[in-house]
Design goal:
single chain
């Protein structure tokens, strides 16, 4: 991830955290973000794996670092 670039389409921290709180929007924004980064394998894995676990980890990471969890950097 480029320095200074934060997740959920460069939106403000408040809007990004609100989107991360809602499970379905966090899931959708998470895989769209990975596809936009040019990481299709990571996007597909995000679609089909551990929805609830990934959501909780993404929520914590978004609040603390304003960045989603990147398990795969592929």
């Amino acid at each position: 991830m480029a320095k200074g670039k934060k997740d959920y389409f460069g939106l403000s921290r408040v809007v990004s955290v609100i989107l991360a709180i809602i499970p379905i929007t966090a899931w959708i924004c998470g895989f769209i973000t990975r596809f936009r980064e040019g990481k299709p394998v990571a996007g597909v894995v995000r679609i089909f794996t551990g929805f609830w676990i990934v959501w909780v980890i993404d929520l914590v990471m978004m609040i603390c670092k304003k960045s989603i969890w990147r398990l795969l950097d592929a």
